[in-house]
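Appendix B. Chain record.
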Amino acid sequence: MKKSVSFFLFRATTRFLLGALILCGFVLAADASPPTRIACIGASITYGYHLNDREHNSYPALLQRWLGTNYDVRNFGVSGTTLMSKGDKPYVQQEAYTNALAFKPDVVIILFGGNDSKHPLPGDTNDVPNNWQHKADFVPDYEAFITSFRRANPASRIYICYPTPAFPGRWGINDDTIHHEIIPLIHQIAADSSVNVIDLYDAFANRKDLFPDTVHPNEPGARLLAAYVYAAVMGEAPPFGHE
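Structure tokens predicted for this chain:
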């Protein structure tokens, strides 16, 4: 049985269209950019301690929702950790640190200082750690920390945060130490290491209402913190209402 000319034309056209679709798929796949990787590094405030449903209400989770699918925001927060390697729970000894480096983030947001400020005050119990006795290590440890992320991704943009205030603090966390000692050192580190600073201390200086346990922000506080970080990284206000 002879096949018509129209059949051969149909088959040729089908093959052409199929090939074009495959080629188009390859081109689109080649042009597709991977999501921008953002690592949120820190202690309990980054982790989302004391928040209801921290998986959705921590500041990294809010960043992810606001930024959308072109970004991959990971929460590497570990409660109770210190930046200083001689603190009572050094971040660099945690699995999260190794995982964050392996992530090779394009953007790194670092928030430490509260736990580093811990030291006993008159009337404190003996179980309050004295982390601030190692304050001479704060600058070199912080600069080494920054360097480790630059080695993981030399093109990374790094932001270091002034700690949020304590009102006045608990568990040995000391607002005077944060304000008068740690923040000036972070300012020095930012200048020495050519990184960006996000001032979360002044942002919350008059917002005691957002820190019910005097140290950790509640859900509205975490949302406001996320908004400050978003504005610093993106250069614009977050898209409230698009969550």
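Further analysis of this model is presented in Appendix C.
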